[in-house]
Amino acid sequence: MQIGPIALENRLFVAPMAGVTDRPFRMLCRALGAGYAVSEMVTSRKELWNTLKTSRRADHAGEPGPIAVQIAGTDAAMMAEAAQYNIDRGAQIIDINMGCPAKKVCNKWAGSALMRDEPLALEIARAVVDAAAPHGVPVTLKMRTGWSADHRNAVKLARDFESAGVQMLTVHGRTREQGYKGSAEYDTIAAVKAAVRVPVVANGDVTSPEKAREVLAATGADAVMIGRAAQGRPWIFREIAHFLATGTHLAPPLVAEVRRLLLDHLQEHYGLYGEYSGVRTARKHIGWYVRELPGGEEFRGRMNGIEDCAQQLRAVSDYFEQLAAGMERIPVHREAVEEADEEGAEDEGAASAAH
Ligand SMILES: Cc1cc2nc3c(=O)[nH]c(=O)nc-3n(C[C@H](O)[C@H](O)[C@H](O)COP(=O)(O)O)c2cc1C
């Protein structure tokens, strides 16, 4: 799989998630089997580039390439400038956010709202491509299926973006109006794939190896992108990679391995955010790791009372050590069990290997 001239390791991508897919989390997902990770969005508003939040988002120290930076905004010239600024700071791919309900900028909603204003969406794509092309940096774009159920314009826009020089399109199978409600649909993604020659990435509700296989088959997409299902479960990428390659399930990780992964993740997290913010912003990650584990809810509640790194690390370490005394591996993920049950006898070999 290629993005312009850049070859990727595989076709399993981590979705950009503001407040989640920071450098430590992206690196963890990459180490656990994701072939590609896009950074959290960076605003096109110049006055915010020097804020702590934006400079943390622009921190790619030690990250394996390609470095892909997502930009969001509503003004073509500002977006071109943002592309240039990030390329100067090491971005090897620029991704335009037309996929999530980003903030209001200059009285206009950025992100997926741009899909409602096709001329502006196209003007932005052209301006960003023009800014990136002289550096040999490919531009990609992430969008939804459309604005609303009656305004599903992803196919038209995909053709326009391709003509404008965009080199990969990611489509989240929901409309902007849906937010995160309902289920993702994949017919529109399949139609986008059929309409363009550039690689297309399918996104939305991929939560298990079976679902990844199903979505790849249903859409013909070149890759799948996984967001929420990777929260607290970054090893989902190696599970999917193994399943796609062999048709069998990898055993869930050892409790001892998850303990080590989470402790390392926390150290990296504190390194990026410092103690005060680090301890607080780490709570959501910890909560995701333990949410399906015995006593996880109670442990998550306890985390809120802890305000320093050393104590947080110790509590996490103790929790997983206790867990390891009672179980060797973490339980098979709930949805994976349900889906394996649904597949039933048809795929007995794969389902049994999961346990
Ligand atoms: C907390 C959170 C933050 C997100 N931030 C972004 C973002 O910065 N840029 C973007 O294009 N999409 C963003 N998204 C959307 C995801 O990239 C993805 O399209 C969506 O979650 C659907 O995929 P999933 O079902 O695998 O989670 C965000 C989603 C979540 C849950």
Average pLDDT taken over every residue: 91
The total number of structural domains is: 2
| H-E order | EEEHEEHEHEEEHEHEHEHEHHHHHH
**The CATH homology group name of the largest domain:** Aldolase class I
- CATH topology annotation of the largest domain: TIM Barrel
CATH class of the largest domain: Alpha Beta
Enumerate the strands of the largest sheet in spatial order, edge to edge or round the barrel. 4-3-13-12-11-10-7-6-5
Structure notes:
This protein has 355 residues and is α/β, with parallel strands linked by helices. The protein folds into two domains: 2-246, Aldolase class I (TIM Barrel, Alpha-Beta Barrel), CATH 3.20.20; 255-326, Non-ribosomal Peptide Synthetase Peptidyl Carrier Protein, Chain A (Orthogonal Bundle). The chain is 46% helix and 14% strand. It contains 13 helices and 13 strands. The protein has helices at residues 23-31, 52-57, 76-88, 118-132, 154-164, 187-195, 209-219, 236-246, 255-290, 296-303, 309-326, 334-343, 348-353; strands at 2-3, 6-7, 12-14, 36-37, 42-43, 68-72, 93-98, 104-105, 108-109, 139-146, 168-175, 200-203, 223-226. Helix 7 links the parallel strand 12 (200-203) and strand 13 (223-226). The chain starts with a strand and ends with a helix. Flavin mononucleotide is lined by residues 15-20, 40-41, 70, 97, 99-100, 142, 172, 203-206, 226-229.
